[in-house]
Amino acid sequence: MRYLLLDSGNCRKLEQVGDIRLVRPALNAFWQPSLPASDWENVSGIFSRDSGGGGTWEWKEKVPESWQIEWGGLQFIVKPTGFGHLGFFAEQHENWEWLRKTVSVMGAKPKTLNLFAYSGASSLSMAQGGAEVFHLDSSKGMNDWARNNLQINSTIPDSIHWVTEDVLKYAARETRRAKKYNGIVLDPPSFGRGAQGQIWKMENDLIKLMNSCRDLIDRSSKHFILLSCHSPGFTPVILERIIADVFEKGTFESGEMTVPEKSGRKLPAGTFARYMGKW
Fold first, then answer.
1. What is the pLDDT of residue 190?
2. Which of 86, 105, 158, 177 has the most CB atoms around its CB within 10 Å?
3. Between 2.40.260.10, 3.40.50.150, 3.40.50.2300, 2.70.98.70, what CATH number should domain 90-277 receive?
């Protein structure tokens, strides 16, 4: 079973997630839908946001607690959450492919670090490319979900180390230990709270974390940074300049993350910037 974005508009998106059809928010889809209203009404569930950052699901029929789909060359366990998430971000699919290709030409088993790693798609992609991956998320539940995703992707090497810890704390300790990585992936939230009450605020903490990344990257050979986010105001150019403040020499590219619709149109959903050094 696959994922397919059927339509978008009126700040919503219509998705076919395996056998389940859902409507979720798409806050920048200001245009009109292209499919008739009947297609939008014939769904299993609708998620609506509330003012507190969460929201509620309205289920029109009983659906499984979890199910499995394929997207972007990976298998995922899908579980609707109280924040309206499903366990994967479809707009990251081009970044996953970029990671596979980049890691595969870096030499024997490059060592990579995935921060704010969520359910593990970037970690799995780097393992597919031949990397030894350190997967870090502050939530044990998310790391368990990511482990299960690895299990259902049976052709991917088990070359992932699972770390449950606060990102800033881990980066600072690895810096003190003079640890080095050949590539670092970051997909930070606008706001986050760790298991021990640690607070993450994008506008306050991203620069601090990027400075730690500068110390953690092995600049003696090919290396890379992939930074993506969904935070309003963090445009592709801003992300690229944040990386360039820390890594001055190398190749940079940036852009919007998008999901292709069935019609061929694209739904923008976040931004990214990539840096490659010694290539």
1. 84
2. 86
3. 3.40.50.150
